[in-house]
């Protein structure tokens, strides 16, 4: 069966809570948008996506999507999948397009959004984001494309001196909780998201 332009989907919450009643919302969404939710889980695995379309059920994040399943036309599905970006290992890290970083290596990751840590404080010439991008430099290694984040992923391992440099520069962060995390939580690498 050819891919429809839109799919009637029942959306409900999968949030982990005690007994709760969550409303079910029914809406028409473009088939490309439904497939985009699948890509965050499956990547461009055509057989898995065909199976999900036939099954008529998907849990993505805290949402459950349900629809009347159908056997998707392979050519139509390939055409839709071709409209999404592919991983490109030849891409170089571009600090100016980096929108998010996650410091990893300890018990908990530290999430840094550019807009949160790129603000200059009073009498500051450099932001924490500027320092992070300087430390990361061109040495970040390509790690694939994230369909969920709509961005290329890069990884960068830190030396002990680089980690200490980042801890020392955390005073430029305007949020005390985030500043304390960087100073006290162990981290050894950064996972960076760069938009195209």
Percent range for helical residues? 25-40%
Strand content: 25-35%
Runs in which pLDDT lies below 50 for 5 or more consecutive residues are none
Describe the strand arrangement of the main beta sheet, using strand numbers: 6-5-9-8-7
Q: How much is the radius of gyration in Å?
A: 21 Å
What is the count of helical runs? 7
Biggest pleated-sheet summary: 5 strands, antiparallel
Q: Based on Cα principal axes, name the global outline.
A: elongated
Can you characterise this structure?
This protein is an alpha+beta fold and 196 residues long. It contains seven helices and nine strands; from the N terminus they run E-E-H-H-E-E-H-E-E-H-H-E-E-H-H-E. It has helices spanning 31-42, 46-55, 74-82, 114-117, 128-136, 160-168, 176-184; strands spanning 6-13, 25-30, 57-60, 63-66, 98-105, 110-113, 141-146, 151-157, 187-194. A hairpin with a 4-residue loop joins strand 5 (98-105) and strand 6 (110-113). It is elongated, with a radius of gyration of 21 Å.
